[in-house]
Amino acid sequence: MQTYIHDAFPEGSGHALDRIQDLFPDDPFVPAPDEVFVVATGEPTIKEKLVTKIEAAGGTMLTVVHPTCYVASSAIIGRGALLCPFAFVGPFAELAPHVTMNVHSGCGHNSKLGSFTVMSPYASVSGAAELGEQVFMGTHSYVAPEKKVGFRSKISAGAFALEDVAERSMAVGNPARVLMGYFA
Fold first, then answer.
1. Are strands 177-179 and 170-172 parallel, antiparallel or unpaired?
2. How far is CA 126 from CA 2, 152, 161, in A?
């Protein structure tokens, strides 16, 4: 992650990576007045807790878009998003605040990704697909066009969600089989 941030904010950009701090949800935290923050974790619920803690303490979240990432000019990127190398954000896609798109992940045209969603390497959603808040997509997972994945659901590595996935569920396999009510 450190390299991605240096790539996105080279020397002279106005941002410098001065320190890396391990922060846990129950740790005390006081930000300096001029600090901005990036939370890099692959667990959506922990990311939400950390961002909430930082913002409650007066911290500001930084949006990171790696220079090799493609973002269509009509796309909307929420604050605190983290877009890693070679990620793709298609036309009219909407990424809510604090979305993480890892390397080579893709978000098709008119798709919507909810807050704190995490897309692992090579995960992709096709056109007009919708992911709720705190969705986790494993490596090489896929959501078909116009399909919906509910709040806090997980699409396992290699799973192809060809139908809607209810909230708090786990989708496994190709085609994906949905295990209902899997997460609290």
1. antiparallel
2. 29, 19, 11
Placement of tokens 């923050």 in the chain: 37
Using the Cα atoms of residue 5, residue 8, residue 9 and residue 12 in order, give the sign of their dihedral.
Answer: positive
Rounded CA Rg of the chain = 16
Write out pLDDT tens, residues 57-116. 888 899 999 999 999 999 999 999 999 999 999 999 999 999 999 999 999 999 999 999
Three-state DSSP class for residue 83 = strand
CA 20 from centre of chain: 20
Q: Please, are residues 89 and 110 in contact by the beta-carbon 8 Å criterion?
A: no
Structure tokens at 166: 């209810």
Dihedral sign for Cα atoms in the order 35, 41, 46, 48:
positive
